[in-house]
Amino acid sequence: QVQLVESGGGLVQPGGSLRLSCAASESIFRIYSTVWYRQAPGKQRELVATIFPGGATNYADSVKGRFTISRDNAKNTVYLQMNSLRPEDTAVYYCNVRRTTPGGLEYAYWGQGTQVTVSS
After folding, report:
1. Direct distance between the N- and C-terminal alpha carbons of the chain, in angstroms, rounded to an integer
2. Contact at 8 Å (CB) between 29 and 76?
3. CA atoms within 13 A on the CB side of 110
């Protein structure tokens, strides 16, 4: 089974930056999509950013222009660069990888989450 480890969270002031990492136990990102989600207490889980196997990306409107998702296949790692952070970005951030085979089988794996706190 694929194992994912998120890291890079912490406490940062508004306007600051953090880079989150999602490291996979094996080379998967050429065939799996990677999605960053976040969830704050009392809030629904929110999709933040996606990178597809071919390298295309999608972003939530709330982070567009501030966050960048990228991938290093050689390191089996996906990154989320977060700039111009706001207090409303405070949440636990989760890495999710997923794919559907041509035969219709679905696979999905989750990391343990990393806390991001934006506060002055």
Report:
1. 40
2. yes
3. 8
